[in-house]
Amino acid sequence: MKDKKVLFLTQAAMIAALYVVLTFIANAFGLANYAVQVRFSEALTILPYFTPAAIPGLFIGCMLSNILTGCALPDIIFGSLATLIGALGTYALRRWKWCAPICPIAANTIIVPLVLIYGYGLMIEGLSVLQCFGYYCLTVGAGELISCGVLGMLLLFTLLKYRGKLFGEQYAGKV
Questions:
Q1: In 3D, which of 171, 160, 144 has the Cα closest to residue 41?
Q2: Domains and CATH numbers, the chain
Q3: Is 34 left (phi over 0), alpha (psi -120 to 50) or beta?
Q4: What is the spatial distance between Cα 6 and Cα 106, in angstroms, rounded to a whole number?
Q5: What is the C-alpha separation between 174 and 49, in angstroms, rounded?
Q6: Which of 159, 175, 143, 147 is nearest to 11 (CA)?
Q7: What is the pLDDT of residues 101-131, one digit of tens each?
Q8: pTM for the full model?
Q9: Nearest to 15 by CA among 61, 50, 51
């Protein structure tokens, strides 16, 4: 029983650390925040497909990334919650590998534009709040499709071969 707790905590901590590092890399290229976001770290949101330890790991990693990259408080809170919701959804849909990126894409596409508008006051001159929301849904959604849909699924199919060694033998037989 103790070994499972240690494994869970170790996996969660490693995923959080990896999320932070990948966010810093994206941030160095100006891709981690604001209207156009392609956080490489968001590819990790498929990891709940393999292990429930990814859920707290992703949430903590996102929260730390948002704090360390200087995000506004609403972004720290709601951006991290979007990642948590996405991770919970990935875990809930884990029976269907092609559904792994759907919840992270949807959660971020809906929540992050609201953060951009209300947390940062990023309004586009001449557009209404609803029009700005639609625009940001498109830009954030496109970034999430790249991060979660493309990079995440490449990661998922790469990790399938090694899932037993990486995530523990209890996940080795998972389809």
A1: 144
A2: 2-168 (1.10.1760.20)
A3: left
A4: 32
A5: 9
A6: 159
A7: 999 999 999 999 999 999 999 999 999 999 9
A8: 0.89
A9: 61
